[in-house]
Amino acid sequence: MTDPTAEQADIERVNFLLTLRRRGISDRAVLRAMGDVSRTAYVSADLASSAYVDQALPIDCGQTISQPYVVGYMTEQLGLKPHHRVLEIGTGSGYQAAVLSKLAREVVSIERYNTLADQARRRLNAEGAANVEVIVGDGFDGCPERAPFDRIIVTAAAEEVPPALTAQLADGGVMILPLGPQNGPQHLIKLTKSQTPDGVKLDEEKLIPVRFVPMLRGKAREL
Ligand code: SAH
Q1: To test ligand 1's pocket by mutation, which of 113, 215, 222, 223 has the most ligand atoms within 8 angstroms of CB?
Q2: 223 residues of the chain, pLDDT tens digit each
Q3: Is residue 217 domain-resident?
Q4: Residues with CB under 6 A from ligand 1
Q5: 190 lies in some domain
Q6: Within a domain: 81
Q7: How far apart are CA 78 and CA 60, in angstroms?
């Protein structure tokens, strides 16, 4: 006999991938990774029934797990290769890190809330994402000890590109980040770093409009 709950879960996952494809995510490796990661494992039990809806959901500490389409879009824009080392700013639930972990060699993810970092570590371990390291710290500083990074993804909105992050991007590296004021228009920006005879060059491309929680300075005092 088929288990109706399991069947329902399968239908949800198929619809989830169809929605991502319909919205324009076409990279097969990205779709496969998103099909393989359980979003349910990264949200609280009371939100389990909404885990595969294409929307941002609340997590602890007043933060949000990003909308799946935006996770897919940013991941696709990163153009990950299996040998890449990736830095993520804003671990949050750990979901984006879990998706990255399927596509890259190593993921270092920084979160300013202890509570979220602990919870994300537990969830990532339970889901077998062994190549992710979650660090509590201020993402504005990046992680100089582990730099350079082939790819950097920022999942909280800053008003300007944090200089420490461009400095920690490898030659030929790509960084995707949301830029803009907390209550105003924000866009995803894609920066590509290259060395020229005149020095380091950063190509900037403006991508889609988005809405992210703010990137705040310092480790969180509470929790
Ligand atoms: N990638 C996450 C999205 C989390 S929302 C996910 O998949 O769930 C953004 C996160 O960025 C929040 O958890 C917030 O606490 C964190 N954040 C904001 N400013 C930060 C900073 N300066 N350093 C590190 N994390 C930061």
Answers
A1: 215
A2: 567 788 888 899 999 999 999 999 999 999 999 999 999 999 999 999 999 999 999 999 999 999 999 999 999 999 999 999 999 999 999 999 999 999 999 999 999 999 999 999 999 999 999 999 999 999 999 999 999 999 999 999 999 999 999 999 999 999 999 999 988 999 999 999 999 999 999 999 999 999 999 999 999 987 6
A3: no
A4: 63-66, 89-90, 92-93, 95-96, 110-113, 116, 138-140, 155-156, 213, 215-216
A5: yes
A6: yes
A7: 27
CATH value at residue 92: 3.40.50.150
Ligand 1 atom, smallest distance to 120 CA = 8
Q: Where are the beta strands (DSSP E) in 140-183?
A: 149-154, 169-179
Token digits for 123?
Answer: 């969830």
50 is catalytic: no
Q: Count of domains in the chain? A: 1
CA distances from 46 to 6, 13, 41, 43, 148 (A): 18, 18, 12, 8, 39
Boundaries of domain holding 112: 4-210
Rounded to an integer, what distance in angstroms lies between the CA atom of residue 46 and that of residue 135?
A: 27
Query: Does the residue 222 lie in any domain?
Result: no
